[in-house]
């Protein structure tokens, strides 16, 4: 039975299993994501990420991401930062500006390097979208929050009780307003301007952090006049700095990426 090498990494506590698909094939990634992500019977993670060559010249590498329930996601901000660190520190590239192909387009990563180590990564998350018919049916809006698509759908609710995230998230993820299901953020703006945010990630449940969710929260706060265009988003696993730049309408996310451990797992496990 063949074995697959993997690396566990996290970005602000949002942990995934990373496989270099340029040298290791995962025949059934959806099934693998479900088995390997199980925190009691598997390795334990929020999902599985495959790093591969890019099939188009506009990007250097590509990523596919599968949630813990086996569903494929379009994009993950935390995972993209981890990919940047993985590629550079594992010697797969010497670039500090990497173009990464995702299901929601090509994202540019800027690696901040000190002593040959990637200390943080800034990602151009492109423009936010407030109306996406395939992701949000506005006539069925639950009416509690703000819809923002960062390639994947998010619904941000500002509240004094972010700890209701499990009850609210599990209910709204499957609301008829969201044909593809939805990521749900509960957020509270503190006296110092930081935004405390908790995340219910579709397909994974409560996660320690969500990069696209942090971006969506910052955009929702700014678009509703609650903050300016620069925010610090404080999630369960750490903080992310978000800038919704007026000059190009793009959202830029900066945050950490960390290795946890390397391992091998049999494909049949």
Low-pLDDT stretches are none
Number of helices: 4
Radius of gyration: 18 Å
Mean pLDDT: 96
Q: Termini distance?
A: 10 Å
Q: Pairing-aware structural class of the strands and helices?
A: alpha+beta
Please tell me what the overall shape is. globular
Describe this structure in words.
The chain is of the alpha+beta class. The chain is 16% helix and 41% strand. The protein contains 4 helices and 17 strands. It has a 17-stranded mixed beta sheet that branches.
Outline:
Helix 3 (165-172) links the parallel strand 10 (153-158) and strand 11.
Q: Helices, strands, pairings?
A:
Elements: E1 3-11, E2 14-20, H1 29-37, E3 47-53, E4 61-67, E5 72-73, H2 77-89, E6 97-102, E7 105-114, E8 117-124, E9 146-149, E10 153-158, H3 165-172, E11 183-189, E12 195-201, E13 205-207, H4 211-223, E14 230-235, E15 238-244, E16 251-255, E17 258-266
Parallel strand pairs: 2-3, 4-6, 10-11, 12-14
Antiparallel strand pairs: 1-2, 1-17, 3-4, 4-5, 6-7, 7-8, 8-16, 9-10, 11-12, 12-13, 14-15, 15-16
